Every structure is written in C-alpha cells, then in structure tokens.
Amino acid sequence: ALWYITSEAIYGHDLADGHLFYFHDFGLREGSWGAPVFKDGKAFINHRESIVGLDLNKRQLVMTTKVPGRGLLTLGPDDASLLFVDDKSARLISFEGKSLAQSPQLAGGLDDNPVIIEPDAIFLCGQYRLQTHALDRKTLKPKWTFTNKNGPGGGQALCPSLFSATQVATLDAKRTVILDRNSGKVLFDQLDALPNSRYMAADPNGFCFHIRKGSACLDR
After folding, report:
1. Distance between CA atoms of 155 and 130, rounded to whole angstroms?
2. N- to C-terminal Cα distance for the chain?
3. Which of 212, 220, 132, 143 is nearest to 182 (CA)?
C-alpha cells in the first residue's frame, strides 16, 4: 500500500491498481503534520496538539495523547516506542499513549533537523543556539551538549553526519568538528578544513571525506 496524509486526513491506496481502500478524516482542517509512523497494523500521526493512533484493520481511533503541538514523530529506540521531538524537547511515548520519558527544555529548533538514534544515544541538533545534544536512550537526559560557539558558515546547526565506534563528525559547508561520542569532547575543530564535503566514510584508522575538488582523510 501507499500511505500519505494531508493536513486533513490519512489515505491508503492499493499499489496494484491504485484504488483508495482506506480514508480517515480527522474532522479539522490544517491539523496533521509529517509522515505517518506505522507499527503492528497501526498508524500514528501528529495531529494538532496530539499524537493519535489508528488501528488500520478495525478502522478505529485507539490512542490519543497530548503533545505541545507540531513536531517530528518517529519510532523510538529498538522500535519499542514512539519518539516525538518538538521545538525544544523530546519525549518517548508508548504505543498505548503513556508518557515514558521526557527531556528537559533544550535550545530551540530541534524539530527542524533529523533525529539520529544510535546504540549509545539519541542525537538531536537545534538551530537557535547551534547546539548538538546526545540524549540517554531511556531517560532522554542529556549525556552531553556541544555548542558551536564559532558559528557555522551557512547559519545552520552542525548536526551529526558520521559515526565511528568512538567519534561523531559534524560539518557544514565551511566547518568540520569531530567529537568524542561518549563525552562530547572536541577532538578536531577547524574552519575550511573540508569545504563543500559531500560524502564520508570511516574505518578504524580514520575519517575520509570526498570534497568538491578531491578527497581528504584524517588520522583518528
């Protein structure tokens, strides 16, 4: 099936012939955000100031829980819960709508960037103070926070881009920062070190970046 939502409703189309086999109107205009999240025959949607759960087989609303408003909704660690990130905080919600954990208030703009869930932490980055956060997977308490005091070239937060066993690399078009992924300690921070980086790879010996006019590798 092909699933999508508009600001008003969720639709399901059969991929074989395109016919509409599922439709649910939320009854309010301009209310739904982002893509549906699916788990075990249910669809979860950020609708206005709630997360709603729909049983797609029974065609019933089975869960509603309040959230601050618009945000980023995805599956949580190990696909065992829902992770909702609004402008300034993150929260874990069970599939039954129970609150499992919530982060403290963090710098704003968290929902403007992708969430990265790794085995050791959940990584978020916020635009307003140019901060990167590593959150505990169960409690959502910050393990560390990195603030890019130098400011990136394009006015964007330096979000995690590449992970090795011990390090996190963040970069934009003009700045490269490599952090210890356990402590957040800055290991490398240089302007114009790897400008216009496009593709990255890592092995036990170092990081390699493919840039516009060649490539560069850093010893670990």
Report:
1. 9
2. 45
3. 143
- Which CA distances in Å does 106 have to 126, 131, 135? 8, 9, 11
d(CA 63, CA 52): 5
Is 97 strand, coil or helix? coil
d(CA 31, CA 48): 5
Dist CA 108 CA 26 (whole Å): 29
Rounded Cα distance, 69 and 76, in Å: 19
Nearest to 184 by CA among 197, 162, 166: 166
Task: Report the C-alpha gap between 200 and 208 in whole angstroms.
Answer: 6
**Rounded mean pLDDT of 211-219?**
68
Whether the CB-CB separation of 167 and 183 falls below 8 Å is answered with no
Whether pTM > 0.85 for this model: the answer is no
- On the 0-12 / 13-18 / 19+ scale of CB atoms within 10 A, 149 is exposed
**What confidence score (pLDDT) does residue 55 get?**
92
Query: Model confidence at 201, in pLDDT bands (50, 70, 90)?
Result: low
Does residue 103 register a pLDDT over 90? yes
CA distances to 123, 132, 176, 188 from 90, rounded to whole Å, are 11, 13, 26, 28
Query: In whole angstroms, what is the distance from residue 209 CA to residue 186 CA?
Result: 19
